[in-house]
Amino acid sequence: MNYALITGASRGIGAAIARRLASPRLGIIINYHSNSTAAESVARECREKGAEVSLLQFDVASEQAVDSALEQWEAEHPEDNISVVVNNAGIRSDNLMIFMNYDQWRSVIDTTLNGFFFVTRRVLKSMLTRRNGRIINVASLSGLKGLPGQANYSAAKAALIGATKALAQEVGPRKVTVNAVAPGFIESDMTADLDQSQLRKMVPLNRFGKAEEVADLVAFLASDSAAYITGETISINGGLY
Ligand code: NAP
Hints:
7 strands
C-alpha cells in the first residue's frame, strides 16, 4: 500500500490535505506536534473515507525525532511505502526585524526549512529506489514577495522554494517530482488573529481562501495527471500579490 505523509495534519491546511488525499488506495500518515485530540479526529475522518491511517507525533524540527518516528513506522509497515510527502508543518512568529529575537528567527526557520530537510531526506531514498514519488512543499506568498513583520517567515519560505527547485533537478531522472504551493491568506488557526474584513479588500477575489482549496491543488500535484510538472511553485492567493 502506498501512503501519503502529511506534516502538520492535525489542523488547518494539513488536515484538509489529509482528508482530501485519503482513499482506499492511498493510506495517510498524519503527523502533528502536540494536538493529539485534533489529530485523532482527522484520522477518524480519513478512515471514514476508507483509508488506512497512521498517527505519528513528532517535531519536524528535530532530526532525531523525525528519524526515529519514521524508522519505527517503516519497521511496522514492511510491505508499505511512502509515495507522497507534503511538507506542510509551519509556524508564524511575526515581529519587525528590529524587535525580533533570535528564538523567533530560529523557531520559524527550524520548523519550515529544517523540517522539510529532515523529513524529505528520510523518505527520499525509498522514492528514488522505487522510481516513484511526489514531494509537495507548502510555501507562501510571503516567500515570493516578502511581507513586513515576517523576515523570518519570508526567509524560510523563500528558502523552501529554492530547495524545491534544486531538489526537483536532482531527483527528476528517477521520476520523483518536487513542487511547492504558495498560498495567500487562507482561513485557519494561523490567520485567526488577522482582520479578515480589512485584509480581504487587498485580495482581487475579495475573500480569504479555504484550506480545502489548497488541498485540491495539492491533490492535483500528487496525482498522475501532474507527472510532467516539477520544480514549480504554484500560487493560490485569490489574485493577491
Ligand atoms: P495551523 O492551522 O496553525 O496548523 C499548523 C499545523 O502544523 C498544526 O497541525 C501543527 O500541529 C503543525 N505543526 C506546527 N509546528 C510543528 C512541528 N514543529 N512539528 C510538527 N507539526 C507542527 O496552520 P495552517 O494555516 O494550516 O498552515 C499550514 C501551512 O501553510 C504552514 O506551513 C503555513 O506556513 C502555510 N501557509 C498558511 C497560510 C495561511 O494563510 N493560513 C498562508 C500561506 C502559507 P499541532 O496541531 O500539533 O500544533
